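Field log, afternoon session.

UNIT: design team B
ACTIVITY: writing a sequence onto a fixed backbone
BACKBONE:
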């Protein structure tokens, strides 16, 4: 393959196609590759509101026009190297990539599917819009990538997400007409990311548009079966090729007369879709003609161009299913009664009972109900939270799940919900994600660390800290001994265990500051 060397190396066949399509605009497009790439952060409103973050922000912030919680930070700053990043106060995200979740128009209580979700940029953005109410089913076909997805959801303190590692077809069988919002951030040829990620340009092949467009068409068709009437799908790619963009939308509209395209506003940096480029698809790929009516509608799609806006190349389209959505009244979808018992047993009694039951017959393990009761007791004694959803035991761990167990039956589930902890030797050991999703008043003991004396970083490095009892803030008559929620300036970081002036560090080894 031949290349043109700019600040990045660009494939010549790609540039020839862009010259043909863009005409007079081509030179401006090409010179955008010599501009620096933009770094964006998005404030996590599950943890802090935008104004409060602006007041404490360690970086200069410039608003991103299409995302009210998104900001550009200056080149050279390292937003991933700050205790506030470890507190999940913001997500580092390419600015254009913030557009699709905004167009999805998510509200608390919605049932949302993020089908191609790893590493979680859109999922964390959607979760912030849900504000803990409703359900987010987040999925990726790559098992490896779901690990980063789960970790990001945990870092950002998401309480109502299920993480799956499935094919669209298998999810569709379990969730027919279940969702009212779906985002498909489709696998694509990635042409819009060449400036940000040189590997994308290096690996690009001329036939990728054909390969990916077949995949995208199948995904969109399958996903439509999971959307309820009145629901909305946002389809997005980070590529320029019309085969993967307007052509996918025109074909979909042709085959689904119960859907309409909702035109995107073009006042926030979005350029219109390019119906005129569909003839290029027909000519070069020999594909059938698009109906004039459906083709014309694709002008309502949105394109983000690197020579028009401060961000990389993106495409998005909003599709709505005609009809009215009926979500029901529950904040969560799970139907089971999950109330915490009024008078839980003391842990010591539970421990005796569990040990006793093993002694009686030599083999009996505590059953699920007994283990969940230990979690109930911990929550009752140590936390000040109204837990929503269904508590479930899964792979030896306890979760609060926003959907009923039956829904997930047979699906490759990475996380059935919010991981709250596990039972070890008859006692509840709180999980790290329980801490990251708590606000400072929600645990009975809190320790506030600050940036100034370096204690927050020492905690994040896994060090044991000497802390006098007077610094442990305790609710009511609770003693300082026990699990303590550690915060930086009041924003949760993780657990510590305090005893006699020593804070044992419970920050997980894999998350540590290096
Ligand atoms: C553009 S990336 C997603 C980025 C993500 N939405 C974000 O904002 O962080 C596309 C993802 O689609 C996944 N993928 C590819 N084919 C898929 C399929 N058939 N079903 C679900 N996910 C798929 C890939 O593993 C990849 O992680």
């Amino acid at each position: 393959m031949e290349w043109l060397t700019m600040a990045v190396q660009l494939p010549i066949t790609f540039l020839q196609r862009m010259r043909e399509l863009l005409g007079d605009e081509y030179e401006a497009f090409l010179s955008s590759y010599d501009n620096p790439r933009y770094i964006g952060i998005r404030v996590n409103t599950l943890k802090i509101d935008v104004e409060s973050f602006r007041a404490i922000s360690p970086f200069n912030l410039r608003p991103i026009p299409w995302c009210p919680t998104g900001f550009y930070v200056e080149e050279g700053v390292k937003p991933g190297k700050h205790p506030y990043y470890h507190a999940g106060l913001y997500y580092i995200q390419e600015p254009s990539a913030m557009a699709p979740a905004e167009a999805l128009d998510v509200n608390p209580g919605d049932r949302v599917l993020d089908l191609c979700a790893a590493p979680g940029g859109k999922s964390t953005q959607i979760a912030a819009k849900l504000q803990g109410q409703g359900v987010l089913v987040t999925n990726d076909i790559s098992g490896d990538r779901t690990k980063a997805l789960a970790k990001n959801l945990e870092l950002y303190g998401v309480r109502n997400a299920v993480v799956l590692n499935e094919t669209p077809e298998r999810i569709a069988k379990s969730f027919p007409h279940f969702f009212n919002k779906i985002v498909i951030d489709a696998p694509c040829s990635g042409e819009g990311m060449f400036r940000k990620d040189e590997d994308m340009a290096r690996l690009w092949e001329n036939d990728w548009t054909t390969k990916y467009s077949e995949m995208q068409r199948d995904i969109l068709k399958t996903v439509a079966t999971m959307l309820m009437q009145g629901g909305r799908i946002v389809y997005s790619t980070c590529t320029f090729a019309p085969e993967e963009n307007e052509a996918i939308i025109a074909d979909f509209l042709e085959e689904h007369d119960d859907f309409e395209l909702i035109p995107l506003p073009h006042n926030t940096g979005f350029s219109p879709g390019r119906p005129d480029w569909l003839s290029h698809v027909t000519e070069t790929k020999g594909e059938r003609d698009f109906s004039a009516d459906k083709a014309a509608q694709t002008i309502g799609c949105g394109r983000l161009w690197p020579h028009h806006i401060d961000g990389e190349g993106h495409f998005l389209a909003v599709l709505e299913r005609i009809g009215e959505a009926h979500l029901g009244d529950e904040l969560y979808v799970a139907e089971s009664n999950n109330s915490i018992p009024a008078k839980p047993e003391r842990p010591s009694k539970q421990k005796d009972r569990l040990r006793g039951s093993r002694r009686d017959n030599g083999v009996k393990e505590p059953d699920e109900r007994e283990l969940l009761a230990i979690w109930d007791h911990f929550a009752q004694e140590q936390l000040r939270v109204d837990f929503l959803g269904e508590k479930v035991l899964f792979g030896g761990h306890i979760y609060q799940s926003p959907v009923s167990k039956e829904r997930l039956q047979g699906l490759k589930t990475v996380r059935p919900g919010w991981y709250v902890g596990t039972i070890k030797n008859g006692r509840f050991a709180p999980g790290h994600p329980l801490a990251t999703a708590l606000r400072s008043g929600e645990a009975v003991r809190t320790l506030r660390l600050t940036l100034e004396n370096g204690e927050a970083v020492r905690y994040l490095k896994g060090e044991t800290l000497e802390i006098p009892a007077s610094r442990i803030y305790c609710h009511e008559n609770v003693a300082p001994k026990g699990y303590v929620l550690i915060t930086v300036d009041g924003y949760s970081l993780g657990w510590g265990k305090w005893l006699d002036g020593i804070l044992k560090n419970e920050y997980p080894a894999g998350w540590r500051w290096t």
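LOG NOTE: Residues 467 and 501 are 5 Å apart (CA to CA).
NEXT ACTIVITY: expression trials, pending approval
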